[in-house]
Design brief:
alpha+beta, seven-stranded parallel β-sheet, 27 strands
Amino acid sequence: MSGGTFSLLIIGGYGAFGGRLARLLGEEHRLRLLIAGRSLEKADDFVFDMRSPKGGAGRLGGNDLGAWLQAVAFDRDGDLQEQLTRLRPDLVVDASGPFQSFTGDGYKVVRACIELGIDYADLADSTGFVAGIGGLDAEAKAKDIFVLSGLSSLPALSFAALEAMAPHFSRVESVAAGIAPSSHVRIGLNVVRAIASYAGRPVALLREGQPAKGRGLIDEMRVTIAPPDVAPLASRTFLLVDAPDLALLPARFAGLQSTFTGVGTEPQALQRLLRFAARLVEIGLLPSLTPFARALQAASHRFAAGAHRGGMFVRLGGLDHQGRRLTADWSLIAEGDDGPFIPVLGVELLVRRLLEGRRPESGARPAAGELSLSDFEAAFSQFSIASGIRLEHEEEPQPLYRRILGDAWEKLPPTLAAIHAGGTRLASGRARIERGSGLLARLIAGLIGFPAAGEDVPVAVRFVAEGEREIWTRSFGSKTFRSWQAAGPGRDSHLLVEVFGPFRVLLALVPEGQKLRLIVRGWRFCGIPLPLFLAPGGDTYEEERDGRFHFHVEIGGRLTGLVVRYSGWLVLE
């Protein structure tokens, strides 16, 4: 760093991830950003776009461009010593790849940086590349520089989440992690090539405490990504991918029994076709999916469907310090186009630390554990990203809503927490009731037993815990109807299930200030799934107002119109 300006060379600087890193750092006036790649024309176009008002340069797409940008040609197969000497960067960030395809001396860029005394970091997702970087540790220390590999979602962020949960355990027996990208985000070709390279191939992992071989994009696990205080992603299957975590985890936890890293893409039907193609590679009918990378990328763009949300999870299982079985889940959901910024946040944090004069220790190593979860959470605040941790003890029964909400339970206002505290309890108050006038609405209301319309109607609710479920008996004046609630199993996990007669409604519990919103995420009739767009919905929430529990329940749909709406207050007796 000379003259107060820090020079950052981003290899792949106009690519999917390098470009996002440049945009995050674009407002930093202390930076000289060298946007590098094999195509000087593409680098020039990117820099021009960054400098133009429509380019959205700078943090979060503002136009406050303060960094000095320069487009440069950089060829990793060329004379690296000459190129790096001419460009004189303080830090090289390799955001290109796919690192799985590097042949011969895959570390030649790293070695060139070490020889010239230049700090280095990358977004590598290749197990072999990240796990093997420690072989250059002595050389990096001799030059008093740092080399950090894998400063991305896996393993930097996944290990940060893991380290935040590990203190709850006396022994960690299983670790699983996965990424669920939004189907509307255009995945880069290098990412697709990396995934295609190990489809149907053996992937090293742990099973029953022993090294084993999984099957890339074939072995699977089902997970619902559900941060405590936002609506969860739809449950999905994650297919095994080759990620650095699989090689790094056994050294972190003695006695670890099983490991898994996966990707869960939408639409799931397209992922099932990908799994079928991986099976063809496994049995030898296809040599590899790598030649089909462009076709796979085009299909992912063409058939984008579903909510524009992405996510990530890290799950630990084992024993707590009292010897009880414990499962800890950290999960994250990113809205819209914010998800693809997550892989570069670790590098952004590193650069900002360097600008403050805070350097990592010298040496070459994987970036696992280099940053804390609180570091990442501070970076999340600039985006629509929510994350949180759930702890579940198998031997410790908890109230239904507390089990579903996880650590978001602590955010509930006192009156809401008291209503949902579990056990047998009775609450009473007053309510206003409205009924729909349509024929179908009246038939459904009669079938379930909803009360007639009325003003200032006395209401009482009796809650009874019965095993894993709660029975709610509601009395409005002389009219009584009953439903029961339970935590959703399997693909409905982290959702509240409420059953009214033959109808089963799946609800997401989402704290929002003094309110707890109940958002419909699915429904069934006699066990048969029904289209979500026809589901009974409406503005349904609980809130604390003037120190009292208030409720607002609205049930209706496109076919029925309003069925019933009731609102009022309750006080525990």
